[in-house]
Design a protein that fits this description.
The strands form 6 sheets. Strands 14-15-26-25-27-23-24 form a 7-stranded antiparallel sheet, covered by helices on one side. The chain has 382 residues and is mainly β. The protein contains 6 helices and 30 strands. The N terminus is likely disordered. Helices cover 11% and strands 41% of the residues.
Amino acid sequence: MKRITIAALGITLIAGALLQSGQAEAGARSYGYMDMKSNRTFVPIRYLSEQLKYDVNWDPKTKGIEISKGEDKVSFTLGQKKAKVNDTVKEMDAVPFREGGTTYVPIRFVSEAMKLQLEWDKAGSALVFQNGQDAHKLPVISTTRKISASTPIKQKHQSFNVGSKRLSATIVEIDLLHPNIRLGVGIAKGKTGAVDSLKHMATVNGAKVAINGTFFDAYTKSSVKVPYGYIVNNGKMVHQSSGDKRAAIIFTKDNQVEIISGEEFPERFEEGGVYGGLQAGPRLVTNGKVTVNPVKEGFKDPKIVTSGGARSAVGITKDHKLILMTTSSATIPQLANAMKQAGAYQAMNLDGGASSGLYYNGKYLTSPGREISNALLVYRGK
């Protein structure tokens, strides 16, 4: 990841624990806001306490804020530019403020006082706090991005111009920052090698949304239809890969989603934190640009390399939404262009052809032509 200075960050980091109403929600996720106009960065003191394990004190009578760890201590007063670092009084270019019951402090000043290292994860659109051996990632979104309390899942049909072709697609978009959304992996009948309908897989798992996952041995006459690639479910590796380069999607328990290469997968899993993962590929979009190279990822089948057909894909927007897409007829490059136009900042292909299916709210939006091995699931709590 590219190291950046806080002075260069045109972002304002604000806790995502508040929805638009300003009321705190149990289980709400923290996130940042990007505000290029003010060119100032703030973080909630609660994030410093809960995630970075700093000692944080807030005195509502004096409006004083004290943040300390070890020998380092910084003291603020709400609305004032003067602060104290240990015993030295210093002046800041931004003032602490309080909004919706949450107190925010300027992170550049805190990072200098507390010797806190920061990195920018461009692929994940997130700020990474390096606290000793531990790294804590805070998603960042734009100030225009809204977290809807009532509609974290949206379904639509959309058409895209890809070269000379007009491509029609079915899309389900999920707000990954919504407190009631979580992701999972569905395994057919609960065992590797089995197959089941996508709808039944979603229903028995209580999922609101489901899309088909990895490739599998669909044409064998054996009753065991082995899936291809890594599969992680509930933090456990349930299927190993042969070590190929095909792209994979991984996610944490709090919906931090990434698309990585198969080569990275074992190390990322060993590092911990991977709650779910599916390997399929090829990669479609990287950092907002179409990056299609199925041969480099090890694909040889003309169905992937050159031909068109029914497709399924998963993508992540820069402002932390998940895009699930199906289309009845597209080549891999056409699918990649459609995903980019749909807003995907990162994207990859899933199993296609007769396996391609998308389920939402009790019914098929795209009906698979066969039973499948596994699926990416989306749950919506209350």
